[in-house]
Specification:
Strand content: 15-25%
Number of helices: 9
Mean pLDDT: 93
Number of domains: 2
CATH architecture of the largest domain: 2-Layer Sandwich
Order of helices and strands: HHHEEHHHEEHHEEEH
CATH class of the largest domain: Alpha Beta
Low-confidence stretches: none
CATH superfamily of the largest domain: GAF domain
């Protein structure tokens, strides 16, 4: 079914509010922050239709609704189809790229910047040197999903699996976003990964990857990786 313009707006509103709150979103909560030109009852009906089409699901009876992988994929595809905006604070990395001559220190600072800016685990892989840098645990474990012990354990196992197999990780020159079951690693089925190939001064090839809960700020993180890899390619 092709979504109507109203359904697209409502779906976008649910995704935005869920990313911000990590709580199921009700029609009443949605109408407080978004003006769709319709009442709560009609929003509820449209949310039920979106649920029937697989874009939303209800964790338990009488709760609000949360986005599914299909909803996130729809949203991400829209972001990638449009012009990706430049990440606002990328300038500090530009100075590092110009001033820092030690490639390992430079890669480490880039990884830290990627982690802190995305509030996710960030990886910088340099397969030719068998190096994988990782930053971001401190910020990541503050996310609500990590209150679930099983999620925490699976995420830790994913990080270990990724570290052991990063040489086989396929990365493209264009940004790739893998959501939930799209991920090949078994422990990444509840996660989203954003990846892109990159290059350091001197021609050293590598890749950048952000990993975190599916409830991540996709537009911001796609902008971040896109701006970072473009800047690294230009210098």
């Amino acid at each position: 079914m092709e979504l109507t313009e109203r359904q697209k707006l409502i779906l976008g509103g649910v995704i935005e509010e869920y990313i911000n709150s990590a709580n199921p979103i009700s029609s009443g909560e949605l109408i407080k922050k978004h003006d769709f030109g319709i009442g709560t009852a009609m929003i509820r009906i449209e949310m039920e239709r979106l649920e029937g089409e697989g874009y939303l699901w209800q964790p338990f009876v009488s709760s609000g609704r949360v986005p599914t992988d299909k909803a996130y994929r729809y949203s991400v595809d829209k972001i990638l189809e449009e012009k990706i905006p430049e990440f606002k604070t990328i300038g500090q990395i530009e100075r590092l790229l110009i001033e820092e001559s030690d490639l390992f220190k430079l890669a480490l600072e880039i990884t830290r910047f990627l982690a802190s800016s995305s509030s996710s685990i960030a990886f910088f892989g340099l397969p030719e040197k068998a190096i994988l840098l990782k930053e971001g645990w401190e910020g990541m474990v503050r996310e609500p999903e990590f209150l679930d012990r099983e999620f925490f354990a699976n995420f830790a196992d994913f990080v270990s699996d990724f570290e052991n197999s990063f040489n086989d990780f396929e990365v493209e020159n264009n940004i790739r976003v893998s959501i939930g079951l799209e991920n090949t690693l078994p422990r990444a089925k509840n996660l989203s990964l954003i990846s892109c190939a990159c290059s350091l001064p001197g021609g050293q090839k590598g890749f950048l990857t952000i990993a975190g809960p599916k409830r991540m700020a996709y537009k911001k993180n796609i902008s971040l990786i896109n701006s970072l890899t473009k800047l690294m390619a230009e210098l």
